[in-house]
Design brief:
Two copies of one chain form a homodimer.
Chain A (H helix, E strand, L loop, with lengths): L1 E7 L1 H4 L6 H12 L3 E8 L3 H14 L2 E5 L10 H8 L4 E3 L1 H13 L13 E3 L3 E3 L8 E5 L4 E5 L3 H18 L4 E10 L3 H14 L4 E7 L2 E10 L2 H19 L3 E3 L6 H12 L3 E5 L5 H6 L11 E5 L2 H8 L3 H7 L4 H15 L3 E7 L14 E8 L2 E8 L4 H22 L10
Parallel strand pairs in A: 1-2, 1-3, 3-8, 13-14, 13-15
Antiparallel strand pairs in A: 4-5, 6-7, 7-8, 9-11, 9-12, 10-11, 15-16, 16-17
Helix pairs in contact in A: 2-6, 3-4, 9-14
């Protein structure tokens, strides 16, 4: 079955608020196996709204509208939807009573227009609203189902989860399940090229790539009668991806971030790590510390932005800075070794580069970043050349540094793979 | 003139991402005085996309499309829009060159599908993209203007601001100018209460508050024939806000962030600063280092996540940690004094708290954060109690710490205002 979403609200058209309702509803519908082909946003304008609902009625089985159920004159969604469905509005006694109680609880004075919210289309299913004064509405005719929801997320979200989701699930024979296989250390096009055949040949399950900063996520989605069946269909595809990408995969759990995967590795191997940051200036440590409990493995970190700080805190030899410059593989390696020593940690990931916009030269342009991960007498060192804004360059540097840190931890088991700085 | 927005992307229909591009573009269009009556989201499906563009062409003067300009098979926006406008695709030499350079800079291998992005509709205006491989496109016929933008916000936003906004502005008879008065250290409702009269009485110029993390931004917007005229209308309102908020205002320049304002203060007063971070774990230093050139004033920073690190790097006395605990005003002050001393800096801003989700207790719940700013023998110290997720608590902590740092620098000129720890 197809579902279409129409969000009503001038504040969306003016960009005063971000449409989080659309993402919420779309994700739930996807989980229900409903196909959403269209989302629209329209203002509180009867003519345009009516036209949009009529168009939606022609092309979709289910139409979900959010917003425009308020008490004021310009809230027209209910009236317009009822008109399209050929229903007249009648007062709902319980809605009337609940509005009264709701306003009393908050000792708000009830104004005449509040009672407008107690009117519902005849023969509809009313979705009572404990979190506001606008009840939701479900209207069905032989062909279309129209669902009206209040705009405020704190009213819409619980109403959808508690009343709309179960209602829609009843009429859905199939469930949709998906797994998110997350890769680091490979670009989107290269990743896609490696699985073009899978993308092209498959219909169910499907594989779709999503590019994130420094990462590529592959979503495997299967449609089946039961969850078990869906995951059975996903398993061989996941094995195939494992086969093709190997260590580049750091998780298949949508909730697990790269720093969480690194935390798990540190924990499993009982390794401690520290950070020595120049151009990323604390962002790398900040990202690792996103993970609750990492304090056991990351006790301290260094932001060494100046040469003095690199010498003083990390013991980078002055002549290395003089000879090769602060932005060099040699300095990155000295920072990494020095940081591990200063923090008495097993690993140290060091980053030094030119984030710009100034400070670049012909030999060392803005975007040139060296990173080195030290581990027990050996180094993994990389040169990166990024483009874009200062913040983008730093963001990419953090992503690459996390990838390098993970690579280094994994490589401990295969010494041959190690390159010495 | 009317503008219509079409966002292309299956990930939007699946609810994988929130459509922040729509809010961004809608807000900019509103500032330009363009009327937006429709926003749509459609997947990477040629038939539906084509139908939507044709409908939009009938009812809107300007159509902005975002997304679907990527290198992969299912990116069809450019091809479909060109078809509707009756254009064939030709290779753009500069786009081709820039893709090559972009990929080379990142030492990414170029795959065949990358070159698809160098194709543009004949006779279009190309919007070159320093932040990605997908150029934007402007096509005009007598009646409609179609603007194609890449989907990733870090590419779309600068392209819109630097190339699309000026292009659209040209054809707008009335200009809408605005100033953004940015406040820190006051909540949204208190700020709004202070200017309720202004908000209510005014039509042109208007004042509208926007809540940001730890900040409130007040946008003054005026509509006039010329920019000069508009800014003349804005000036008295800005004076009034200055009158009411005083030092809480850190800038009236939309491009200036709080850390930039702090950088200006450090520079003006020739002060150096360092950071001593526990729960924020580098994010505070990371935010300050957003500012190019701050290295002169922020030479190093400390991430002291463990007690040992607080003792070793900052010289926090063990008995303070024992007696008051790591999360206490006393520890925050010792971290601040110790950090300034270790870095030999004039100022040190220190943060210690419980970001959660674990580690909270009845006396010290998750969200309890102490921060202290040391300056030349004296302290500004604050206790905060935040709610929300670990990342939200850390984000708020960074915002408050920046506000505290600014307050401390400003207070140097009025010693009486100082509270000693």
């Amino acid at each position: 079955m197809t579902v279409e979403l129409i969000c009503v609200g001038t504040e969306l058209l003016l960009g005063n608020i971000v449409n989080t309702n659309a993402a919420f509803i779309a994700e739930k519908c996807a989980m229900l196996g409903l196909s959403m082909y269209y989302q629209s946003v329209v203002g509180d304008n009867q003519k345009r709204l009516e036209e949009l609902i009529r168009t939606a009625k022609k092309r979709s089985d289910i139409i979900i509208l959010s917003g425009g159920l308020g008490p004021t004159q310009d809230d027209l969604t209910k009236e317009t939807a009822a008109k399209v469905m050929g229903r007249t509005l009648v007062e709902d006694e319980r809605a009337h009573r609940e509005i009264k109680e709701f306003m009393a609880k908050r000792s708000h004075a009830i104004t005449e227009n509040n009672w407008k919210q107690a009117l519902v289309p005849e023969g509809c299913k009313v979705l009572y609203n404990p979190n506001g004064t606008a009840p939701g509405i479900i209207m069905e005719d032989g062909q279309t189902r129209i669902i009206l929801l209040p705009g405020p997320p704190n009213e819409l979200v619980p109403m959808f989860e508690e009343q709309v989701y179960p209602y829609l699930k009843e009429s859905q024979p199939e469930v949709i399940c998906s797994k998110m296989v997350k890769l680091c250390g490979i670009g989107e096009s290269s990743a896609e090229t490696k699985i073009l055949d899978l993308i092209e040949k498959q219909t169910n399950p499907t594989v779709a790539p999503y590019a994130k900063t420094g990462e590529v996520h592959l979503r495997i989605t299967a449609k089946a009668a039961t969850e078990e069946e869906a995951y059975q269909m996903i398993a061989p595809v996941e094995d195939e991806l494992q086969e093709r990408f190997g260590d580049l995969i750091y998780t298949d759990d949508p909730r697990v971030s790269l720093e969480m995967a690194i935390y798990d590795l540190l924990k499993a191997k009982g390794l401690t790590v520290t950070t020595a940051e120049s151009c990323t200036g604390g962002l790398l440590a900040g990202q690792l510390i996103n993970v609750p409990g990492i304090s056991e493995y990351l006790k301290e970190g260094y932001v060494t932005y100046s040469n003095e700080a690199k010498e003083k805190l990390l013991g980078v030899p002055a002549d290395i800075l003089r000879q090769y410059g602060a932005v060099s593989s040699q300095t990155a390696e000295a920072m990494a070794a020095g940081g591990a020593n200063a923090a008495n940690a097993d690993l140290c990931i060091a980053v030094t580069g030119i984030a710009g916009p100034d400070g670049g030269s012909k030999e060392k342009p803005v975007g040139l970043v060296y990173m080195s991960c030290y581990c027990k007498g050996r180094w993994y060192t990389q040169e990166h050349r990024y483009t874009g804004s200062r913040s983008k360059i730093r963001e990419y540097s953090v992503a690459s540094a996390l990838t390098l840190l993970r690579k280094t931890i994994l490589a401990m088991d295969k010494p041959a793979d190690f390159n010495n700085g």
